[in-house]
From TrEMBL:
<protein>
    <recommendedName>
        <fullName>Cytochrome p450</fullName>
    </recommendedName>
</protein>
<keyword id="KW-1133">Transmembrane helix</keyword>
<keyword id="KW-0472">Membrane</keyword>
<keyword id="KW-0560">Oxidoreductase</keyword>
<dbReference type="GO" id="GO:0005506">
    <property type="term" value="F:iron ion binding"/>
</dbReference>
<dbReference type="GO" id="GO:0016705">
    <property type="term" value="F:oxidoreductase activity, acting on paired donors, with incorporation or reduction of molecular oxygen"/>
</dbReference>
<feature type="transmembrane region" description="Helical">
    <location>
        <begin position="12"/>
        <end position="34"/>
    </location>
</feature>
<dbReference type="GO" id="GO:0004497">
    <property type="term" value="F:monooxygenase activity"/>
</dbReference>
<dbReference type="GO" id="GO:0020037">
    <property type="term" value="F:heme binding"/>
</dbReference>
<dbReference type="InterPro" id="IPR036396">
    <property type="entry name" value="Cyt_P450_sf"/>
</dbReference>
<keyword id="KW-0812">Transmembrane</keyword>
<keyword id="KW-0503">Monooxygenase</keyword>
């Protein structure tokens, strides 16, 4: 009884009663349901890609040893889904393009030179060679 009472005391001390917790979970579920039906998500999901989990996306599929981390998106997903595919990292989508014909208009454009925040993790490896312009 003492252990259960102290857990209940801690939960109310934090400010989350069971009713507030279930209300927050319900609001989160409703928001996620509405977000999944948004035009943006439907357009991204129209692209082929691996199956996703709610809130996690495909992040669990990348929980592999270091040597396999680049092989999975660079070879396995291209083989399974084609030269253009989508991947969800939590609630952020990424589109992989492996076809030179599809990449040529993007890479040759002088207006599409801004690099996303994803390139920041490559700076220690590649230096600032890819950092032409930041959005």
């Amino acid at each position: 009884f003492l252990c259960v009472h102290s857990i209940m005391l801690e939960a109310t001390w934090i400010g989350f009663s069971p009713m507030i917790g279930s209300l927050l979970a319900s609001l989160l579920a409703v928001y996620y349901f509405a977000w999944c039906r948004s035009r943006f998500v439907r357009l991204i999901d129209a692209l082929p890609g691996p199956k996703t989990l709610p809130f996690l996306g495909n992040i669990l599929e990348l929980n592999v040893v270091h040597d396999e981390l680049l092989r999975k998106p660079s070879f396995d997903w291209i083989k399974q889904h084609g030269s253009i595919y989508r991947v969800w990292f939590t609630v952020r989508p990424m589109v992989g393009i492996a076809s030179p014909e599809l990449l040529e208009p993007i890479l040759s454009s002088h207006t599409l030179v801004a690099k996303g925040n994803e390139y920041d993790c490559l700076i220690p490896l590649l230096g600032k060679s890819l950092n032409v312009a930041k959005r």
